[in-house]
Amino acid sequence: MEKSFFQKVYIIARLVPYGRVTTYGAIAGAIGVPGAARMVGWAMNKSYEQDEYVPAHRVVNRKGLLTGKVHFPGENTMQELLENEGITVIDNQIQDFEKHLWEPPGMDM
């Protein structure tokens, strides 16, 4: 059975290592749908419905901004989760973004 777009997004999001982040666009490219960053964001917004945990806090925009933070239960939940992993966030911006950026492998799904 072929996996849905959202399922593919969740597979990649679960691969993001602790203390690292990736971008919506990088995930879209990894699953073979470059240009679908916004759809990846929609998938992240629904990730809490998954039986298996999806570390959605590790997925940010291409500039390292926490654009998805409004979809977390608390105002600062996304930032707190990242800071607990050793990532510094100032004004919703990941500091030393390139150091923390993880590029997902291309996936043949």
Description of the structure:
The mean pLDDT is 95. The chain has helices at residues 5-15, 24-30, 37-45, 77-84, 97-100, and strands at 22-23, 59-60, 89-90, 93-94. The protein has a two-stranded parallel ribbon. It has a single domain, classed as Arc Repressor Mutant, subunit A (Orthogonal Bundle), CATH 1.10.10. It is built from 5 helices and 4 strands. The protein is globular, with a radius of gyration of 13 Å. The termini are close together. It is mainly alpha-helical and 109 residues long. α1 packs across α3 and α2 (24-30) packs across α3. It is 36% helix and 7% strand. The relative contact order is 0.23.
Task: Map the helices and strands.
Layout: H1 5-15, E1 22-23, H2 24-30, H3 37-45, E2 59-60, H4 77-84, E3 89-90, E4 93-94, H5 97-100
Parallel strand pairs: 1-2
Antiparallel strand pairs: 3-4
**How many β strands by DSSP?**
4
Order of strands across the main sheet: 1-2
Overall residue-averaged pLDDT value: 95
- From the N-terminal CA to the C-terminal CA, the straight-line distance is 11 Å
Helix fraction, binned, reads 25-40%
Q: What is the domain tally?
A: 1
Give helix and strand order, one letter per element, not per position: HEHHEHEEH
The helix tally amounts to 5
Q: What structural class do helix, strand and pairing data support?
A: mainly alpha
Return the CATH class.
Mainly Alpha
| Rg (C-alpha, Å) | 13 Å
- Subunit organisation of the chains: single chain
CATH topology: Arc Repressor Mutant, subunit A
Shape annotation:
globular
